[in-house]
Amino acid sequence: MKPKVAFICVHNSCRSQMAEALGKLFAKEVYESYSAGTETKPQINQDAVRIIKDLYNVDMNQSQSSKLLSDIPEADIVIKMGCNVVCPIVPGKHIEDWGLEDPTGKSDEEFIKTARTVEEKVKDLANRIKNGEIKL
């Protein structure tokens, strides 16, 4: 069975949504991707939606929405996006913090940089799971 990965940040509208989308795109054979937050937004950050659509041809408006932690299954692996505030406490067998800056309100360049970093990290996570570096 594939491990479940939860990408967590406070609002579940930008970085964690990007991670969910890119996890589904690049790592679906290794793990299941979910994202959630302690609060939700009425819609996903539309700059993030636009950038992910431009770069990867994935429409997050179609496939994803802002979710609470209680809306997703229990995760084996919990990835915190890097909350400057207190990150939600979520139980998991493996927990790490990616420490990503929130690009909300910044330029497209910042969103693209964040998306590329998330892509790299999502792929790296898949490799580490495949190689047995993460004990579950």
From TrEMBL:
The lineage of its organism: Bacteria, Bacillati, Bacillota, Clostridia, Eubacteriales. Keywords: Arsenical resistance, Oxidoreductase. It comes from the Bacteria. It comes from Clostridium punense. GO terms for molecular function: arsenate reductase (glutaredoxin) activity. The keyword Endoplasmic reticulum does not apply. Its EC number is 1.20.4.1. Residues 3-128 form the Phosphotyrosine protein phosphatase I domain. Signal peptide: none annotated. It is an enzyme of class 1 (oxidoreductase). Coiled coil: none annotated. This is Arsenate reductase.
